């Protein structure tokens, strides 16, 4: 057997993400699930066992819908790659812990069947399934998606729900804002994916350390939010840190905006993508009618990814890319 034949034996072609690594998709997705565990544990501590139930329902239904779709369409089973499990868990991280379970199932159906499978499955969807499902729920069930349970350690005894820090800021109730340390540790109302910046930071740094994600998008995203907040609030570092810890910036920057399929491939493209996410997020927070803009920013930048890829490829090739 010649050298060419030996090379062809080792050549494996599969759907995106295409990464030069010994790890396969299952190992990558398993690492992401592991990285989400600190935030999951923090969510259970803050909101109780309801987080476990909601997460299990979203995860199982996401995997179930992928399994069922493959059965109906006579496709090879793909549930073993764990991508559906990651999508299901991220959906649970993006909604209130009190969300009705059937809405979590509906979100999983929308993410897996409508956004992912109908476009060809993993590697072919052009927007992040979990982010799109979150926006679908927000538009369809605004009341349930904006009713946030209070932390179990909250001092209030006459209420079980309350506003998030961003809701308080949007309502002008600055005097009621939690401290940055409370938001960093996670003693606030909100979804599982926004209560503890520390837990999400640990998970994100773990992914960077394992080289599962590049630090470019998270740094560009978080850095842009910080700089814009500094400018908007007159170089008030307290408010700049507030905007990093509040809402879904940490979850979005490390776990949603770094999706292999829906984000740019080259370093320049990743930088543009991260900055764009930060700019849109702060534009919505400061001047928009919604208190939070992370989901919308990532979705809009996902749509721009083909253009960003094209521009960054042209820059990388020195303008010599063949125009067709």
TrEMBL record:
<feature type="transmembrane region" description="Helical">
    <location>
        <begin position="184"/>
        <end position="209"/>
    </location>
</feature>
<comment type="similarity">
    <text>Belongs to the NqrB/RnfD family.</text>
</comment>
<keyword id="KW-1278">Translocase</keyword>
<feature type="transmembrane region" description="Helical">
    <location>
        <begin position="294"/>
        <end position="313"/>
    </location>
</feature>
<feature type="transmembrane region" description="Helical">
    <location>
        <begin position="268"/>
        <end position="288"/>
    </location>
</feature>
<keyword id="KW-1133">Transmembrane helix</keyword>
<keyword id="KW-0597">Phosphoprotein</keyword>
<comment type="subunit">
    <text>The complex is composed of six subunits: RnfA, RnfB, RnfC, RnfD, RnfE and RnfG.</text>
</comment>
<feature type="transmembrane region" description="Helical">
    <location>
        <begin position="131"/>
        <end position="150"/>
    </location>
</feature>
<dbReference type="Pfam" id="PF03116">
    <property type="entry name" value="NQR2_RnfD_RnfE"/>
</dbReference>
<dbReference type="InterPro" id="IPR011303">
    <property type="entry name" value="RnfD_bac"/>
</dbReference>
<keyword id="KW-0249">Electron transport</keyword>
<feature type="transmembrane region" description="Helical">
    <location>
        <begin position="216"/>
        <end position="235"/>
    </location>
</feature>
<dbReference type="GO" id="GO:0055085">
    <property type="term" value="P:transmembrane transport"/>
</dbReference>
<keyword id="KW-0813">Transport</keyword>
<comment type="function">
    <text>Part of a membrane-bound complex that couples electron transfer with translocation of ions across the membrane.</text>
</comment>
<keyword id="KW-0288">FMN</keyword>
<feature type="modified residue" description="FMN phosphoryl threonine">
    <location>
        <position position="164"/>
    </location>
</feature>
<dbReference type="GO" id="GO:0022900">
    <property type="term" value="P:electron transport chain"/>
</dbReference>
<feature type="transmembrane region" description="Helical">
    <location>
        <begin position="241"/>
        <end position="261"/>
    </location>
</feature>
<keyword id="KW-0472">Membrane</keyword>
<keyword id="KW-0285">Flavoprotein</keyword>
<feature type="transmembrane region" description="Helical">
    <location>
        <begin position="28"/>
        <end position="46"/>
    </location>
</feature>
<keyword id="KW-0812">Transmembrane</keyword>
<keyword id="KW-1003">Cell membrane</keyword>
<feature type="transmembrane region" description="Helical">
    <location>
        <begin position="101"/>
        <end position="119"/>
    </location>
</feature>
<protein>
    <recommendedName>
        <fullName>Ion-translocating oxidoreductase complex subunit D</fullName>
        <ecNumber>7.-.-.-</ecNumber>
    </recommendedName>
</protein>
<dbReference type="GO" id="GO:0005886">
    <property type="term" value="C:plasma membrane"/>
</dbReference>
<dbReference type="InterPro" id="IPR004338">
    <property type="entry name" value="NqrB/RnfD"/>
</dbReference>
């Amino acid at each position: 057997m010649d050298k060419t034949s030996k090379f062809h034996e080792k050549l494996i072609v599969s759907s995106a993400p295409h990464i030069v690594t010994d790890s396969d998709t299952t190992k990558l997705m398993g690492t992401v699930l592991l990285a989400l565990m600190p935030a999951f544990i923090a969510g259970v501590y803050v909101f109780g066992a309801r987080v476990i139930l909601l997460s299990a329902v979203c995860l199982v239904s996401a995997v179930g819908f992928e399994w069922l779709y493959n059965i109906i369409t006579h496709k090879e089973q793909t549930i073993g790659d764990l991508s559906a499990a990651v999508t299901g868990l991220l959906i649970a991280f993006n909604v209130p812990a009190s969300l009705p379970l059937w809405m979590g199932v509906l979100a999983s159906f929308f993410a897996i069947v409508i956004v992912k499978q109908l476009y060809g499955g993993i590697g072919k969807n052009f927007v992040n399934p979990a982010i799109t499902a979150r926006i679908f729920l927000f538009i369809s069930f605004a009341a349930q998606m904006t009713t946030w349970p209070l932390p179990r350690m909250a001092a209030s005894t006459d209420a079980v729900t309350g506003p998030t820090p961003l809701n308080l800021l949007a309502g002008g109730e600055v005097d009621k804002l939690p401290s940055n340390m409370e938001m960093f540790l996670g003693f606030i109302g909100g979804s599982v994916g926004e209560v503890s910046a520390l837990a999400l930071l640990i998970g994100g740094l773990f992914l960077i350390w394992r080289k599962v994600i590049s630090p470019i998008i998270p740094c560009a995203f978080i850095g842009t939010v910080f700089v814009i907040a500094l400018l908007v609030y007159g170089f008030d570092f307290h408010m700049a840190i507030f905007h990093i810890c509040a809402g879904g910036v940490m979850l979005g920057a490390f776990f949603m905006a770094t999706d292999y399929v829906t984000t740019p491939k080259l370093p320049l493209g990743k930088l543009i993508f991260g900055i764009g996410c930060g700019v849109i997020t702060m534009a919505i927070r400061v001047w928009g009618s919604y208190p939070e803009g992370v989901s919308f920013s990532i979705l809009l930048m996902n749509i721009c990814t083909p253009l960003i890829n094209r521009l960054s490829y042209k820059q990388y090739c020195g303008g010599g890319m063949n125009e067709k």
